[in-house]
Amino acid sequence: MIEIHGKNENLYEILKSRFPGNPKAPCLILADGDEVSYGRLHQESARYACLLSSLGVQPGDRVAVQVRKSPQALFLYLGCLRAGAVYLPMNDAYQRHEIEYFLGDATPRIFVCRPQIRALADELAAKTGVIHVLELADNGGGSLAEGAALQPDNFSTIVRTGDDLAAILYTSGTTGRSKGAMLSHRNLASNARVLHRCWAFQPGDVLLHMLPIFHVHGLFVAIHCTLMNGSPMLFEPKFDAGRALALLPRATVFMGVPTYYVRLLSEPGFTWELCADMRLFVSGSAPLLTETFDTFKTRTGHTILERYGMTEGNMFTSNPYKGERRGGTVGFPLPGVSVRIVDDANRPIQVGEIGQIQVKGENIFRGYWQMPEKTREEFTEDGFFKTGDMGKWDNDGYISIVGRSKDLIISGGLNVYPKEIEEMIDAIPGVFESAVVGVPHPDFGEAVIAAVVPQDNEAGAALTEAGIISALKGAFANFKVPKRVHFVDSLPRNSMGKVQKSALRQQYT
Ligand code: MLC
Ligand code: AMP
After folding, report:
1. What CATH number does the domain containing 416 carry?
2. Atom 39, ligand 1: which residue's CA is nearest?
3. Residue 117 lies in a domain
4. How confident is the model over 62-76, as pLDDT tens digits?
């Protein structure tokens, strides 16, 4: 693509151009009733950008962030964009070895952490060459906000081309090693524009924002749509079904993973009347059961709009805003996104047949950070990204996801790659081998469970389910830790010696 000389393609400039004319217009409406106006958002993001620059952050430098959701976390994200830095958000559930890997791999100049892990952050920063550690407390206090408060409230947003990086989001891999997906300003801007238009964002919209903001769903899809619309968000620290019931009458749009919908439906107070002023419910990040889709419709009169995407390119497909939203499908390719479903020889398959989903478009990421080989493997020669999802078309052009070729479990909208967990279990004294699989779970969609073969010795005989779970809890984010551990004499294998995970899944379902 040819760059137009002098044009600033920094995503922040694109978002800013859509902010309301009145600087007092609300952007964030917080749980305690406080509001952050669009004018303040602009000023605060300037202060954060000034602070980053004063700490020596140059365009392209990474800023790693592991904090709870707060307005200050949003100021920081936007401040990074404005300073030309590359934002690297991390799930706050990540533990020592996960954080160490991300810092070591991405070599950020700055690490912003919660005060609770300051000692660990200092230790890991020293080990991995991070220059500054700053704190952001859950209530918005700490050295980051204190430093920002001393800075001027204006900053000339750094000029970026569309190809320059805006963010790196780590996604685990089937090899057990996480990969940093590099997303450019153009990747994010193109998807923001398309979603804003396709989902008909309009004056008067209010988004109920309950997703975490360290993944694409909460950070990019929900926030960008709102900022592109210049409208307010009810900005809640996390998903809570009771709070959602209280706030839905003040909202028009809600976005969530399927678990949120399951939890809303289990609330007796979740009624048709409560949703009377809602315009749109969007679901994604994991498969929405047809049963949830149907029950939701009967209960509220609303048809959930299911869409499909991935960290490596934000959103790929969506059910239509106008027109039939078909349960069990993820709709049509979004404008500007080419989707094809192919067989093993990369040939397009017929309607109704199952094949691999591949995608191409301005939204697709620029590759994995410092993994050129891996990046090459994941793209076809003609530039399509191999999603690892299996799908099919129906006669009307709707796409359904029917499985995954990658060994991945999605629990409550969070990805768990079995390999990473298996390696850790296998390292526990007394374990001969293990296999980790996902089994259906009424709340999380899929739950992680492990089958463990003990060694035939004293250490093996001493293994317990609680012991294994507690060993893993110190090592991994909680959502990756198996909910159950089953001891078995051997793992089921096929004639090639490969563990038959489907047999385990069946056995423990
Ligand atoms: C928390 N736990 C989970 C879990 N979340 N276990 C499995 N799966 C999860 N997703 C753990 C907790 O640590 C706790 O462990 C126990 O399970 C019960 O926790 P809980 O109180 O029920 O959890 P809660 O805090 O309510 O969180 C659940 C949740 C949350 C579903 C609200 O996980 C969530 O907000 N998920 C959304 C993630 C998301 O944004 N995904 C988008 C990715 S982007 P213990 O041991 O302490 O009892 C993407 C691309 C795309 O995928 O297409 O959008
Ligand atoms: P992540 O790597 O966290 O971005 O997760 C992306 C994966 O989530 C995709 O590759 C899909 O497997 C899955 N996913 C996202 N949206 C949907 C959906 N609507 N239905 C089924 N799977 C989905």
Report:
1. 3.30.300.30
2. 413
3. yes
4. 999 999 999 999 999
